[in-house]
Design goal:
Layout lengths: L4 E5 L5 H19 L5 H9 L5 E6 L2 E10 L4 E8 L8 H16 L3 E6 L4 H7 L3 E5 L3 E6 L11
Helix pairs in contact: 1-2
Length: about 150
């Protein structure tokens, strides 16, 4: 049976799903980083840049979130969360590949931040992201277009 993965823009009626998703997918990593775990904190992160939020669908069922900001200098993955029961099924890789296609269209690198103890870092490394900075809480990572892919602006 073929699985269909898609996206739709998040709407306010998704907030309860997004809260449950965030708690399920992030609490463990946030706790290790010493970051607050209150619903208020989670909701503030959900509502921040809400217009950049897209629900990830598997066979039309909500299973995750990609929050993608188009900045002047990069395509920034603000958040990528997938329900744990859908981990290791290729969905994260699929989403990263979609973001890479968009980055190529826009001729922009991709940037993101990932908590130090978050195993998603290995997903990003497998997809060619490099650690560019590290602080007490997170890695800053980026994926650059291969030189031959940069569009000539002349």
């Amino acid at each position: 049976m073929k699985v269909t993965i898609g996206f739709r823009r998040a709407v306010t009626t998704d907030i309860q799903f997004l809260l449950a998703l965030r708690k399920t997918s992030m609490n463990e990593h946030l706790l290790r980083a010493g970051i607050p775990l209150s619903d208020q904190y989670h909701l503030s992160r959900i509502n921040e840049f809400f217009s950049d939020s897209h629900v990830i669908l598997r066979d039309k069922q909500a299973v995750g979130l990609i929050k993608l900001g188009v900045l002047p200098v990069s395509l920034h993955i603000r958040q990528l969360q997938i329900l744990p029961e859908y981990h290791r099924m290729g969905m994260g890789s699929y989403v990263i590949d979609v973001v890479k296609r968009q980055a190529r269209k826009l001729n922009l690198p991709i940037t993101l931040n990932v908590l130090l103890e978050n195993p998603a870092k290995s997903l990003y490394l497998r997809h060619g992201f490099l650690v560019t900075e590290k602080n007490d809480f997170e890695y800053k990572m980026s994926w650059l277009l291969p030189e031959k892919e940069y569009k000539n602006e002349n």
